[in-house]
């Protein structure tokens, strides 16, 4: 099954971390992901301070300066894994350095048509 | 009902009891589709009840049911999977099941894997026991709902949702790897024990004592499928110790009888022997977990009542270890009550004082009942009266309420 791993960071905790160590860990994780799971590394987003949210109704569009929800943990990026089951996906989430700075939501992808 | 119909119905029922979980587990394990497996099997059972009275009960009802269920299931899969690769997959599954139903003695028992799927941490905690009861035992949503005090329609919906989740989230059907096993086994044990306590706490007319015996059946199944797991043995022992005393906890008039006053002639000694043997095996096999410690405490209480052994120091020591493991305020409460038997009620009350700040205990009836008993023994009538009154207010069981009212009325003037 394919799983989308949605990374949510506590941005304050992340900022307080040893950056050199963190990104070294991330490089190792991405390497492992590419070798063992055969997937491209995911994508990293700019912090939520750079976010803009729009919501359209029939007559107008609201444009809000900021993220979708103003919560302590913010969407920070994602990676995809192809895992035989949820336990394997959970194992990848635990390995991801971001799991120490927030949470990782594991969402199975909708199966493609005809598969 | 004619004799033939009756015999067929009885045969179907026998198979249902013995094989339902095995067949559901086997059919569901490959597709992760529990609901689909149940549907296929339900149709197979319906077909059996139609044809067996006419054609006779087959030599091997398991194989017959599996063959019919397989046809339904592969049809259903075929409807979903239409591409060529899917067709090969369906053929593979069909061949495998065909081979298994030809040699039904060798149908692999996947019930353990099914239990681990039902009690997976990704399944809502409160639904783990209902899922196991339905998939392994074939209990209906209506019966489960009655035991869990939830409206049947709600229970039905939540069961469907949980099964959909097993399939869609990709929850695996397998016994976890060694490093994960202790933690994951705990969720299975907790689910079975939760089913047991439903059957223990609710006394009376709702048919829940059956839930207790179903939970014990599941405990035996688990111990049989996973020999040498001390915590599984400990949990089964704990259920058996408790169940052995069921007849003694109410007198002939239905009044509550506290443990220390129970007539031990009413205890089921065969069950206690079973429990002792399991506990012995558990303790020799590995380190002590929660269920082993709780079972050991029961064993110490039983030894005191049956043989007059002085076991209170052992009980306190066991509660110490249990508290180190769980940090539970209920354990701290029980330890204090046991300590009163050695050091007296005032010492126990002094231990309870810091627990008064714990919000979890404020609405816990046994906490107030214990305070009432201890204060009474310490000669503090006013405190005892107050504590018994709160305990009475928190009780939902009529027999226990009456017992507490009698205790309160019998408080001596200081």
Task: Give structural notes.
The complex is a heterodimer of chains A (about 120) and B (about 425). In chain A, about 30% of the residues lie in helices and about 35% in strands. By secondary structure, chain A is an alpha+beta fold. Chain A has a four-stranded antiparallel beta sheet with strand order 2-5-1-6. Chain A has a two-stranded antiparallel sheet with strand order 3-4. Chain A is globular and about 50 Å long. The relative contact order of chain A is 0.32. The model of chain A has no long low-confidence stretch (mean pLDDT about 90). Chain B starts with a helix and ends in a 5-residue tail after the last helix. Chain B has helices at about 5-30, 35-55, 60-80, 85-100, 110-120, 125-135, 140-150, 150-170, 180-200, 210-225, 230-245, 270-285, 290-305, 310-325, 330-345, 345-350, 360, 365-375, 380-395, 400-410. Helices cover about 75% and strands about 0% of the residues of chain B. Chain B is mainly alpha-helical and about 425 residues long. Chain B is built from 20 helices and no strands. The interface of A and B includes residues 1, 84, 85, 87 and 108 of A.
Distance between the termini of chain B: 70 Å
Shape of chain A: globular
Please give the most extensive interface between any two protein chains, plus how many residues each contributes. Answer: A-B, 14 and 14 residues
- What shape does the CA trace of chain B take? elongated
Main beta sheet of chain A: strand number and arrangement?
A: 4 strands, antiparallel
Ordered list of secondary-structure elements with their pairings:
The complex is a heterodimer of chains A (115) and B (414).
Chain A: E1 2-10, H1 11-16, H2 19-37, E2 43-44, E3 52-56, E4 61-65, E5 73-82, H3 86-95, E6 102-108
Antiparallel strand pairs in A: 1-5, 1-6, 2-5, 3-4
Chain B: H1 3-31, H2 34-55, H3 61-80, H4 84-102, H5 111-118, H6 125-137, H7 141-148, H8 152-169, H9 181-201, H10 209-225, H11 230-244, H12 269-285, H13 290-307, H14 312-326, H15 329-343, H16 345-352, H17 359-362, H18 365-377, H19 381-394, H20 398-409
